[in-house]
Amino acid sequence: MIVLGLETSCDETSAALVVDGERILSNIVSSQADLHAKYGGVIPEVASRKHLELILPTIEEALSEASTGWHEIDAIAVTNRPGLLGALLVGVSTAKAIALVHSLPVTAVHHHEGHLYSALLTSPHLAEEFPLLVLIVSGGHTMLVKMMGHGSYTLIGRTMDDAAGEAFDKGARLMDLPYPGGPSIARLSIKGDPKAVHFPRSYMGNTFNFSFSGVKTALRTHLKNNPEAHPVEDLAASYQEAIVAMLVNTTKRALEETGCRTVCVVGGVAANMRLRQRMREMADASGVELVIPDAELCTDNAAMIAAAGYHRLIHTGANPLSFDTFAMQNLEEVR
Ligand code: KG4
Ligand code: ZN
Question: What CATH number does the domain located at 2-115+297-333 have?
Answer without folding.
Answer: 3.30.420.40
